Amino acid sequence: MFEENTGSPAAGAGSEQRRERSASTAESGAGTSGVQSNEAVAREPENHGGEVPSAARAVAVALAGWLLPGLGHALLKMWGRALAIFLTVGFLVYLGAGMRGNVFEPGGEDAFARLGYMADAGTGAFYFVARAMEVSGSDVSHAVGDYGTRFLATAGVLNLLAALHAYEAARGRKA
Amino acid sequence: MVPLHFSHFQSLLLFALIISLAFGTLGRRKPIERVKYAAWSFAMFVLVGIALGWLMYPFSK
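YS: structure for the whole thing
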């Protein structure tokens, strides 16, 4: 779903510089072969706005995005996406808890409960918000409660996907 | 908090709307592409949901 990342500060500045560089190389290198100029461009290290993307930084960004939905993208100055993730995950958690969906607890008895907990925990800090909102417990005896369970799980999976996207963006990859 | 009550179809529409908007915002960059992708996702969520509902209808009796 996240098909492009040209808004990333890590990718944006570097790719613009590379485009300019390849254009100037093509102009000046009229006498040389095009293969050589392309190789020269390919060998040059990527300059991500003066900031070298490191794996540790990318992991930190992903963890931040998981703990607080949207924070990973906010750290990368991708404000629109950060806000969209925060609002979407927050709204899904609010609706899921309001519909009295099942907020799974750790140490579930079967595989479904454990998977449900993993999905719910994907919302990061919002997991505890959902727990706090459901003061009267879950009620999945009605369809609306079952839908609430799905809303909560979807919020978690969506946030995990967003955290993965933030990781890819922090590494300077097209995500 | 006050419990929220929705019907099956209302829940389906709400779910489809939220996820479609998120997909559109996160998956595309140009505004017109975002709107198109969100509308397409919303239509697919609703249509496939209704189709699956009808497919399961014989087993509900």
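YS: worth flagging: Chain A has eight helices and no strands.
IM: good catch. Also Residues 31 and 37 of chain A are 11 Å apart (CA to CA).
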